[in-house]
Amino acid sequence: MASVPVQLKRSEISKEEQRKTPYLDALLAYVREETVPFHVPGHKQGRGIHPKLKDNLGSLYLAMDLTEVLGLDNLSHPTGVLKEAQELAAKAYGVDYSFFLVNGSSSGLHSMLMAVCNPGDSVILPRNVHKSAFSSLIFSGVVPIYMMPEFDEKLQVDHTVTEKTLEKALNDNPNAKAVLLVSPTYYGVSADVKRFVDMIHAHGKIAIVDEAWGPHLHFHPKLPFAATDAGADLVVNSTHKLLSSLTQSSILHLSGNRVDRSRLEAVLQLFLTTSPSCLLLASIDATRMQMATEGERWLDKAIMLSEDARARINKIPGLSCIGREIIGRPGVFALDPTRLVVSSTELGYTGYEVENILRKKYHVQVELSDLFHVVALVTLGDDQEQIDRLVDGLSRLEANDSGEPPKPRITKNVKLPDWPPFRLTPREAFVAPHETIPFERAVGRISTELITTYPPGIPSLVPGEELTRDVLDYLVIERDAGSRITGAADSTLSTLRVVK
Length: 500
Ligand SMILES: Cc1ncc(COP(=O)(O)O)c(C=O)c1O
Hints:
The protein is an alpha+beta fold. The protein has 3 domains: 12-293, Aspartate Aminotransferase, domain 2, CATH 3.40.640; 295-412, Aspartate Aminotransferase, domain 1, CATH 3.90.1150.10; 426-499, Orn/Lys/Arg decarboxylase, C-terminal domain (Ornithine Decarboxylase, Chain A, domain 4). Helices cover 36% and strands 15% of the residues. The protein has helices at 9-12, 15-18, 22-33, 51-57, 59-63, 81-93, 104-116, 131-140, 163-172, 193-202, 239-242, 261-271, 278-313, 351-362, 384-395, 426-431, 469-481; strands at 97-101, 122-126, 143-147, 151-152, 157-158, 178-182, 189-190, 206-210, 234-237, 250-254, 320-321, 334-335, 339-343, 368-369, 373-377, 434-438, 451-453, 459-461, 485-486, 495-499. α3 (22-33) crosses α13. The termini are far apart. Residues 104-106, 109, 130, 132, 182, 186, 210, 212-213, 238, 250, 456-457 line the site of pyridoxal-5'-phosphate.
């Protein structure tokens, strides 16, 4: 099962073989047979659905909304068309095994840590991981050893960790079982994954990569190096985020022999629904076929469109869209050009305001907003007209409803707080007796809550962390600026739940 040098693998893909879509074909065949369905889902291929939904969805889509019936294999123990589809995916990505997921990369993150660690084992990971990685720490009882990501003062964004930070964490923690890396970040910044994976392996540890934002990287030479190509042991890709599979579908990849495959499969079964959507599975099969056979051409277009947008946005007074100039800053090894991270601070708007104006006035919806930026994704589904709508909306921001230019707001003076100190493990704090106290009296107490502004879904506070003045002040700024804050029992933040 040892991995062959992965750089060779891209050219090894057999386009002929990759044109196959065994799972999608089996699903379509079942629908064409017109078998009488005495099985779930209860809507019986659309017949029982109210016309208000049915007429808007289309009858073929509903007829395909099935779960495991004879001939459509079993996600917990695939032996037929699903096994074949997963093997084709593994070949397309150049890994040893691929597993289809129907609950996003979140379920991949839940499974990966539990597959390699037992309660009490420790894992090295950057503090700016997605909330699903913290959920995994709570489920698994794994002890986190946090690495601090590089904070970019100019952009007010966390990038990846540096080689030095990783080296120190590896040297200081010889007993850690694994390292979890996040690359690319939500903002499209990649680490030197090849170098990092080699370092992790040289220390005898398992390399896990949250590559939720990189399902496309493997398919284009101009994109940052993919973790699957770097020989990482476990990698999760959100195919629904940047490729064309349906929402919630993702793939988990396994390479090499450091991870016990049977344990991983057992853990996946703990987290899997017993009624996986065949539509989601078929959509992964189709997107793999599309990428393996014509991905480079599709991505050429997405890269070209995004570079065009970036150049035009950078000409709009008051706005800037980050590009290759940030490569080489600490924590920035490479950048995915298809991510458009637009800073609105000079113009005086928060990212939340920009998102609202774009949506309400110009019917353009971005992926993410934070205090300082909006982030737009350019994918296989975009064309020039859509790019023009985005750039046009951004170019009219200054002439807002009142016709007045925006006044400089908080964003010029706001700085993201330092990460709070960690006092208990996330699991210890989550299960500890708790009490609810007024927000003003919370400084110095230990949080039991996982409080996150979403997106990007990186928690400001994790169970077990101390509530510092800086973090509390920052949460108020976020709340007042209109951020979507999740995870607090009291969403107004008047009270907080802390360890008793
Ligand atoms: C870095 C990162 N990892 C994992 C996830 C979870 O992915 P999914 O939405 O596919 O569950 C996200 C979601 O935004 C993310 O940003």
